[in-house]
Design goal:
By secondary structure, this protein is of the alpha+beta class. It folds into 2 domains: 234 residues, 3-Layer(bba) Sandwich (FAD/NAD(P)-binding domain); 152 residues, no CATH class. The chain has 12 helices and 23 strands. Strands 1, 2, 7, 8, 9, 10 and 22 form a 7-stranded mixed sheet that branches. It has a 7-stranded antiparallel sheet with strand order 17-16-13-14-15-12-18. Strand 8 and strand 9 form a beta hairpin. The longest helix has 14 residues. The radius of gyration is 25 Å and the shape is elongated. The two termini are 27 Å apart. The chain binds flavin-adenine dinucleotide. Flavin-adenine dinucleotide binds next to helix 1, helix 2, helix 6 and helix 12. The site of flavin-adenine dinucleotide has 38 residues, from helix 1, helix 2, helix 6 and helix 12.
């Protein structure tokens, strides 16, 4: 950096000290093998660095996944594939090891620091920055980035100006705005000539209509097959655990599906999410299951039959919802009512009122189109010298460490 009286200059200015900004700054410094000490500046708008890293993965930071493929992401998968290929999971694991962070694999395939603490990850990143002479400045929100005609950028921040030869834009998306990622980075990208596709919350829980029985089931988790349809077409089908909550539905399967439901209104298309509570069976097989049960246990009540398969609380709520008397014996249960119940249990339509909002979303769907970025270097094809990385790009991963791998 130059002295205080003139406009400061630096080689590389990184905007945003989240996962992508920290990793980019470290990579840039390491690539220049110590040739740029003090020449890389990292400006962060928030007062605290790494707040999102600390809350991630329930405070344990799920940094990546044992296998990462383009199918784990949404966006332009052809380009996502190229970006992923330049930094494989093995490289991530080696890179963390070089920072002194050992990772362990959990049965789900997720990789966490062996300490089980997100703090380990953040401390390692900050220590490496310090050792490489990277200036990190909290409370330095960037307000403008303007290319000058001397092949540099003039950056205005909360405390003054800075000239940089190259700029890395890593301002994140809109998820968890209290950590500093409030979407202003999109405005910076726009002013630098980029498009920004519609942004909506992804990996977010869904709020159900008050008429539903979710409150009585709060805390209950059960396996389901979730189907999302948009404009009558199936756009997503996945199996996993659904968690009932006091406001509606959550859990991995709901979080993963939420992006489709959130995106649909931006295209003015109606979206629906339904559940099959017999995830491995189709309607015919479920009907057969009911018939088998009736034959094997003709005197068993309907509620009792269902309780062999589902938690009592769920059985009670569903039967009440369908206005079916659970005390009736299976043998005396009219076929028409049985079909209605089978339909309900295999295509349960959730009356979704809204998503839970940016304060609860883990990631942003939409952003700067990947087509405007050179995937080999992440340099902008529109503004040379500008590089874009992380959640600000139009790419979102499913739950499981894929978003950190991308960042
Ligand atoms: C609760 C929660 C849990 C999560 N858990 C996981 C997990 O376990 N595994 C996983 O893979 N992903 C997880 N994610 C997603 C993951 O954290 C993000 O996708 C990832 O951190 C994005 O990194 P980023 O650097 O691109 O953006 P961010 O982490 O959002 O960082 C952007 C930074 O830029 C700063 N900034 C913004 N505008 C400006 C400006 N104008 N000037 C200066 N600075 C600015 C922001 O303050 C912020 O610090 C989780 C997310 C949340 C919210």
């Amino acid at each position: 950096m130059s002295n205080q009286n003139e406009t400061e200059t630096c080689e590389i200015l990184v905007t945003g000290a989240g996962a992508a900004g920290l990793a980019a700054a470290i990579a840039a410094a390491e690539k220049n093998s110590g040739g740029l000490p003090g020449r890389i500046a990292l400006l962060e708008g928030a007062r605290t660095i790494g707040a999102k890293i600390l809350v991630s993965g329930g405070g344990r930071c799920n940094v990546t996944h044992e296998t990462v493929t383009p199918a784990d992401y949404f966006g332009n998968r052809r380009l996502i594939k190229n970006v992923l290929a330049s930094f494989l999971v093995e490289t991530t694991i080696r890179w963390f090891a070089s920072l002194g962070v050992a990772l362990k694999r959990e049965p789900t395939g997720k990789l966490f620091p062996t300490t089980n603490r997100a703090h380990t990850v953040l401390t390692a990143l900050l220590t490496r920055c310090q050792n490489l002479g990277i200036h990190i400045r909290p409370d330095h929100r960037v307000t403008t980035i303007e290319p000058t005609n001397q092949a540099t950028f003039l950056i205005t921040h909360r405390h003054g100006n800075l000239l940089a030869k190259r700029v890395i834009l890593a301002t994140g998306g809109r998820s968890l705005p209290r950590t500093g990622s409030d979407g202003f980075g999109y405005e910076l990208a726009r002013r630098l000539g980029h498009h920004v596709t519609e942004t909506v919350p992804a990996l977010v829980s869904l709020v159900l209509d008050d008429s539903m029985f979710h409150r009585s089931l709060a805390g209950l988790s059960q396996p389901v097959e979730l189907t999302t349809t948009v404009n009558g077409h199936i756009v997503d089908r996945r199996t996993g655990n659904l968690l009932w909550t006091h406001f509606g539905i959550s859990g991995p399967v709901v979080m993963d599906a939420s992006r489709f439901w959130c995106l649909a209104p931006t295209r003015k298309e109606p979206a629906e999410i339904s559940a099959n509570f017999f995830p491995s069976l189709n309607q015919e097989q479920v009907r057969a299951w009911f018939s088998d049960q009736a034959q094997a246990h003709p005197r068993r009540s309907l509620a009792n039959t269902l309780s062999h398969r589902f938690p009592d609380r769920f059985v009670e709520a569903v039967l009440h919802h369908a206005d079916i008397d659970g005390a009736i014996t299976r043998a005396r249960f009219p076929r028409q009512r049985r079909d209605l119940l089978v339909n309900l249990l295999t295509k349960f339509p959730f009356p979704i009122r809204s998503h839970r909002g940016w304060n609860y979303a883990e990631v942003t769907a939409g952003g700067v189109p990947l087509e405007e970025i050179d995937y080999r270097t992440m340099e902008s094809k529109i503004t040379p010298g500008l590089y874009v990385a992380g959640e600000i790009l139009d790419c979102d991963g499913r739950l499981g460490g894929f978003n950190f791998q991308w960042a």
